[in-house]
Amino acid sequence: MDFDLPPEYNALRKMIREFCVEEIAPIAHKIDETGIVERDLLRRLGALGFLGVPFPREYGGMGAGEIGYCIMMEEMDRVSASVATIIGAHIGIGVMSMYLDGSKSLKAKYMPDLCSGKKVCAFALTEPNAGSDAAGIQLRATLEGDSYMLDGQKMWITNGPIADVINVLAITDPALGARGGATVFAVESQWEGFSTGKPERKMGLHGSPTSLLNFDNVRVPKENVIGQIGLGFVTFMKTLDIGRVSLGAATLGGAQASLEASVRWARTRSQFGKQIAHNQSIQFMLADMAAEIESLRALVYRTAWLVDGGRPFIKEAGMCKLLGSEIASRCIDRAVQIHGALGLSRDFPMERGFRDARISEIFEGTNEIQRIVIASELMQEVGVRLRP
Amino acid sequence: MKILILLKPILDPRGMMINRKAGKVFINKKEWMMNPGDARALETALRIKNTLNGDAVVIAAAVGEEASLNLLRDSKALGVDRAILIKADAPTARLYSALVNHLGDIDLILTGGSALDTGENIGAQIAEPLNFAFVGGAVKCDIENNAVHVVKSQGKEFHGYECELPAVVTFSREAPSLRYAHGGDIIIAYRDKNAVETMSADELGLTDLQPSIVERGQTTPPEREFGKQVSLEEIATAIK
């Protein structure tokens, strides 16, 4: 067994960490306050390959695989969960769905621009009446000559207001419903009939814009169909499965940041005439955080290794997301406790981390859904099919 | 136009702690980084290559083992044309001047000023045996009409220097910092087994190398004593 990452990944992590600490950490607070991530920052990230980490060089990506992508998400979330979420929605589910099932010409048309930061991608599944029940979507796509007309609404779409290309799941055959009658379309935001609602006001992730998308008879040419007609649901579920790994990596970064800040604070802060690190109550919290983070790190990178090796990973991916989001929430909660009143201060990163961590238990499949995914994989190993 | 960059890995000072009472340096995290001046030399070389529209060959060289090898791979990812690792104990002027003679036609040698760890100034040391012109502490360096133009920061002023090629220029930490490499280039540079050429001291014709530095122990400088605060009147009476 070899738990050492190959040297190229260590070098990659070093570069990514340097960029995150030097360029993003100083503006992370401002991003949260203003809710704006400059397009220029995304272009700079794109120029270094950050916006196409797992994709091959021929499509403008970095060619670093899922392991490289997990490293990037971990380091990014360590400094700014908002930027990490923009990138996560862009690569992890947006471009990924195009990369997994898109045609060669479609990938050649969009992926170089998406990976270089010229364009931003989004992934649209959730609807006003379909969240965890993804099969309940109603956005309708009707064939008219050589193109499809999309009509309906999507909700809570990360990157919605800033996306240039949106991969949308729509119903092409209402008789079959989502399973067998849904198709994915790549929609450009400047096409007629497309509009976005105003950005949602959220508890956390202020820098990552989320909004409603309106499709008012948007004409989408047939070439922009991703995958096969009728099998869109499969494409989206495959994408979500793989996206959970990097989401786990992102939560790992957030948890790690809270631990590092807590260790620093325990060394700096003195009460009763000694550093608070000398109190067992603080030591126990730090030790619990470190133990949980280490177990999560082992799980995340092993799962990424499974993905890169082309082995089955769905169960482990669900665990990454489930454990990652819960561990991150617990760690940041303890970090706030260790920081005391300063943990509540808007001028300290703990308060932002606390707000940003909560969403991880909800988006990209709630943790309850993750438990169902894991259980159905467990049962499948003994021949029982839980998922239809 | 052939430009040689000399790189040196140093232990990242952020991973160290100095304990005065114990008189020791504790290394909490052993991580290597590029000497800051060398990183600026590399950045300048890449800029010169850019302005000459690729009409320059940039060669990076370092002495040592794994840490030096990684620096050379990093520089390769940044767009250096050749990277050469010399297997020897420590970088010395003899070793580097032998390399320069081995490569031949080197027009410009760029490196950092005094190294952050040992404080040695390899640039000044190799200029002498090679009989190259030398400018130290540069913040900016351009090539024009076969001459090198260097801007140095001295106190609050900037001084311009011009000298003919071949020359050695060392950089201060005020020079522009190193750019980031594209992640994909890092992956390629590290996976390519032939990215870095290796040479031994024997191949450079040096067979009698002795280690230049021997570590005998660690001590910290004596504790500084606070001075006495005096008033203007006291100075006036003392001068009288």
Can you characterise this structure?
The complex is a heterodimer of chains A (388) and B (240). Helix content of chain A is 53%, strand content 14%. Chain A is α+β, with helices and mostly antiparallel strands and 388 residues long. Chain A has 3 domains: 7-120, Acyl-CoA dehydrogenase/oxidase, N-terminal domain (Butyryl-Coa Dehydrogenase, subunit A, domain 1); 122-231, Beta Barrel (Butyryl-CoA Dehydrogenase, subunit A, domain 2), CATH 2.40.110.10; 234-380, Butyryl-CoA Dehydrogenase, subunit A, domain 3 (Up-down Bundle). Chain B has 240 residues and is α/β, with parallel strands linked by helices. Chain B has a single domain (2-215), classed as Rossmann fold. Chain B contains 6 helices and 13 strands. Chain B has helices at 36-51, 66-77, 93-103, 122-130, 183-191, 232-239, and strands at 2-7, 9-11, 16-19, 24-27, 32-34, 57-63, 82-87, 108-112, 133-144, 147-154, 157-164, 167-171, 197-200. In chain B, the strands form 3 sheets. Chain B has a 9-stranded mixed beta sheet with strand order 11-10-9-12-8-1-6-7-13, sandwiched between helices. A two-stranded antiparallel ribbon of chain B has the order 2-5. In chain B, a hairpin with a 4-residue loop joins β3 (16-19) and β4. In chain B, α2 packs across α5 (183-191). The longest helix of chain B is centred in the N-terminal third of the chain and has 16 residues, at 36-51. The A-B interface holds A 6-8, 11-12, 15-16, 18-19, 47-50, 53, 57, 61-64, 68, 72 and B 70, 73-74, 77, 180-184, 186-191.
Short description:
The complex is a heterodimer of chains A (388) and B (240). Chain A folds into three domains: 114 residues, Orthogonal Bundle (Butyryl-Coa Dehydrogenase, subunit A, domain 1), CATH 1.10.540.10; 110 residues, Butyryl-CoA Dehydrogenase, subunit A, domain 2 (Beta Barrel), CATH 2.40.110; 147 residues, Up-down Bundle (Butyryl-CoA Dehydrogenase, subunit A, domain 3), CATH 1.20.140. Helix content of chain A is 53%, strand content 14%.
